[in-house]
Please model this.
Amino acid sequence: MSRHRIAAVSDIPPGAGREFVAGGKIVAVFNVEGAFHALDGICPHAGGPIAKGVVTGQVVTCPWHGWQFDVASGHHCLNTQLKQPCFPVTVEDDSIWIELPTG
Ligand code: FES
Model:
């Protein structure tokens, strides 16, 4: 695992998602009522930018064709066999950190 500081807490307001590049990956980070969640930012359907989707509760809707994912678990909302990779998030002081797999 490699650890990356990706943003300040104030960079991602509650109810929002933001896209970052960390460790050569595009990562989508969401703030759900103060709890941060990180997913692989590339939609598995056709490569859409998940971070740019509308967030309702803890569900994000991909802006390209509407696939929906639970941002906490990564599960697709209709097809639970489909799971978007999730990454551990920690908050220290004012910084958001994520852990990414290496290799
Ligand atoms: S690319 Fe995300 S729903 Fe199609």
Summary: The domain at 2-100 is CATH 2.102.10.10 (Rieske Iron-sulfur Protein). The longest strand covers residues 25-32. The mean pLDDT is 97.
